[in-house]
Amino acid sequence: MFSDSEESLSKSQLKRDARELFDLGRQLVAMSPNQLEQIPLPESVLDAVVEAQRIKSHVAHKRQLQFLAKQLRAIDPQPIIDAAAKLHGQGVEDTLKQHRLEAWREALLNDGHQRLNELIAQRPDLDRQLIRSLIRKAQRELAEMKPPAAARKLFRSLRELDDQSPLEPPRS
């Protein structure tokens, strides 16, 4: 992405590189403090990010983003880019896991015994009695239009199973 010999780069390439750093700055400003802690940022860059997060005026915010991009040009941005990509990838993995577990919960609530047998085939070590009880309670809560407390417990149980070793998605 960035070359040591900037003299050999075209003006267009320099503009693309500058735009990428500006976009990286935007990504950093959009992150939460917990996410920023996981990224190796020099103090000057971190200060610029925090300042940009604080600014509400559109014009001033854009000017601060430009300053942040200038700060990023002064350092090697690759470790920051790699850490941000890793954080983004981790978010995607968490979302996929969440969807997979929700699919299992819905399958268990809709198809009961058939899906439970499929789950038992994958994980013979699971607590069958607990899962069956949670399925029945969740179905009853759904029928009686009550809050889904048992469905939440079922989801937590599935998440604990998945944390031990990932579950395959339920068959359609």
Short description:
This protein has about 170 residues and is an all-alpha fold. It contains eight helices and no strands.
Describe it for me?
The structure is a single chain. Helices cover 75% and strands 0% of the residues. With 172 residues, the protein is mainly α. The protein folds into two domains: 8-75, Orthogonal Bundle (Diphtheria Toxin Repressor, domain 2), CATH 1.10.60; 94-164, Orthogonal Bundle (Diphtheria Toxin Repressor, domain 2). Helix 3 (43-54) packs antiparallel against helix 4, helix 5 crosses helix 6 and helix 7 runs antiparallel to helix 8. The mean pLDDT is 88.
What is the count of structural domains?
2
Number of strands: 0
Helix content: over 70%
Question: Proportion of β residues?
Answer: under 5%
Which stretches are poorly predicted, pLDDT < 50 over at least 5 residues? Answer: none
Shape: elongated
Please write the CATH class name of the largest domain.
Answer: Mainly Alpha
Which whole number gives the mean pLDDT?
A: 88
Largest sheet, in brief, is:
none
Assigned CATH architecture of the largest domain: Orthogonal Bundle
